[in-house]
Each structure stands twice: as C-alpha cells, then as structure tokens.
Amino acid sequence: MAKTAMLFLQNFKKNDYMCWHVCSQCYNLGSVVFRDDNTTYFKAEKKSHSTDVQHLAQGSAYYTGGTNLRLEISIETSSNLQTSNASDAILDSKSRNVGFVYDYCIEDSTDDDFNDIYVNVVAWKNKG
To answer: Cα angle at 65 between 122 and 68, to 5 degrees?
Structure first.
C-alpha cells in the first residue's frame, strides 16, 4: 500500500525560474510529482528496488502561477512517511528577497536515515 506526503511550496511567485533535483536511496518503489492545480512540472518514478543512490529527476521551468504548488511524494510502504523539511529565503547583498529554496528529506521506514527520497527545489525572480 502506498503512503503519500503532500508538501506545499508557497513562497514562489508567477514567472519565477525554478530548478529541481530528486534522488532516492530507499528499497521501496515510489514517485514524486511537482505540480500546481493547472500544470505538472515533472513526475519522477523510482522503479527499482536497488538501495544504491538513484538520480530520479533534474530540471527547470518557469512557474506559471497556478494555485496549490506542491510536491506529491508516494512510496509503497506500510510505514507512515516522515519528512525533514528545510527552507530559506535567498537574499541579495541589500537583504532583498530574490528567491527561495526548499529541501525535503523523506523517511519511509524506521531506520531514521531520511535518505529514502530527497527533493531540492529552488526558484529565483530572475534567471541568470
């Protein structure tokens, strides 16, 4: 049976340039979907039971501004998913906010290594 964590990213603004990286080191199969109510930016799937670190997704897109920007992380496990979340503003030299970064470390069992799924998403007001 799959368990799902839904994580909302509320600090990005329309036309922000987003980049992401997703990897996994869990035994279980699963998926990560990054979307809002209008657009799916990516879907990454873990299709192997290998516990070696697996790169699942890397990419970028402009945020179209749809509501409920979120990550939907599903893992085939009987345990509840736990998340270790970190986020922070990206400030310029005058302390003006120019972007935001989110990091999510997901635990799918009881070993507390929090490396079962890792997702990093960052966005800036201007690219380049």
So the answer is: 80
Sheet strand arrangement including 70-76:
2-8, 70-76, 30-35, 40-46
Q: How many CB atoms lie within 10 A of CB 128?
A: 4
What does the alpha-carbon distance between residue 32 and residue 57 come to, in Å, rounded to a whole number?
A: 9
How many percent of the chain have pLDDT more than 90? 96
Q: Would you state the pLDDT for residue 74?
A: 97
Nearest to 128 by CA among 65, 60, 42, 64: 60
The secondary element (H helix, E strand) that includes residue 78 is none
Q: Are strands 2-8 and 117-124 parallel, antiparallel or unpaired?
A: unpaired
Kindly report, residue by residue over 71-89, the tens digit of the pLDDT.
999 999 999 999 999 999 9
Q: Look up tokens 């960052």; give the residue.
A: 122
Count of residues in the chain: 128
Query: What pLDDT does 36 receive?
Result: 98
